[in-house]
Backbone:
């Protein structure tokens, strides 16, 4: 294993993580809801859902976040290396997978583990394992 | 009025959540894949997102768990499911493959949508299609033919 110290940003990631933890805590304390993005988005697609307004508000908040950030400081650079066909396949897998698993990085990874849920721990270990293996095969597998 | 406060709170929390994803670098797929690439030039930073978020979240959920209702008087809607089944594990594995392919999970993809990245729009549309496909398959399962014996129906559902 070779660590990329040049890209290592421990302070920023820790602060970002704390902000995510504050957001998850606030949502449950103020509204009683779990800050799970896949569940909040997926709940909008369920027929007859009568609670669309807070879901849309939360989603709008996330989408507006880069504008809020850019009003104060310069937005950090980001890079999407995947091509369009890969993005379509990946999006379908993320959409279906998170709904079957009833959670994603936020709902299981942050909220679930914070609640010491064994289900969420298993889910988090599963998607992390799949992520590590997928990147290994894509970057270092045969033909890569 | 309460409804407005509820949605207003959700919006404010969404902004904090999204800013957290930006500050941490989670919104940048190149950084996510750098974290998932254990065999390459590994960038361990994102492990600390979990550390920070869970340290604070554990306190927040600890306090919330002792309450009957939320500060706005709404019931606490904490997940009750406990079983670790095939749906949970296979769903999470499929999600992880998609995460590794693109470097996006749902929250960061919404942030990237706000940045105005065309690739993020395509990813989010595909993600919504995947979620809709899930809803369609669920409905198909619920609308099982009535001549199927009840026991078999239950067994099939329990199998996940």
Residues:
């Amino acid at each position: 294993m070779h660590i990329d110290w040049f890209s290592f940003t421990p302070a920023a990631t820790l602060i970002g993580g704390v902000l995510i933890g504050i957001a998850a805590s606030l949502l449950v304390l103020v509204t009683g809801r779990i800050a799970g993005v896949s569940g909040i988005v997926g709940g909008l697609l369920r027929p007859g859902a009568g609670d669309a307004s807070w879901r849309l508000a939360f989603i709008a908040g996330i989408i507006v976040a880069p504008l809020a950030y850019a009003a104060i400081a310069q937005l950090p650079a980001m890079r999407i290396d995947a091509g369009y066909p890969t993005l379509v396949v990946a999006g379908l897998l993320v959409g279906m997978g998170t709904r079957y698993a009833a959670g994603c990085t936020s709902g299981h990874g942050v909220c679930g583990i914070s609640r010491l849920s064994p289900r969420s721990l298993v889910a988090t270990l599963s998607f992390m394992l799949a992520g590590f293996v997928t990147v290994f095969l894509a970057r270092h597998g045969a033909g890569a | 009025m309460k409804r407005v406060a509820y949605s207003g709170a959700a919006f404010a929390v969404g902004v904090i959540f999204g800013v957290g994803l930006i500050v941490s670098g989670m919104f940048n797929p190149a950084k996510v894949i750098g974290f998932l690439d254990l065999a390459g030039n590994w960038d361990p930073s994102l492990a600390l997102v979990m550390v920070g978020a869970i340290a604070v979240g554990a306190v927040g959920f600890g306090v919330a768990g002792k309450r009957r209702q939320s500060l706005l008087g709404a019931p606490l809607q904490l997940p009750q499911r406990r079983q670790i089944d095939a749906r949970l594990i296979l769903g999470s594995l499929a999600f992880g493959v998609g995460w590794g392919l693109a470097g996006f999970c749902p929250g960061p993809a919404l942030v990237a949508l706000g940045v105005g990245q065309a690739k993020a729009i395509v990813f989010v549309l595909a993600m919504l299609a995947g979620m809709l496909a899930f809803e369609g398959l669920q409905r198909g399962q619920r609308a099982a033919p009535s001549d199927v014996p009840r026991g078999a129906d239950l067994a099939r559902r329990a199998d996940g």
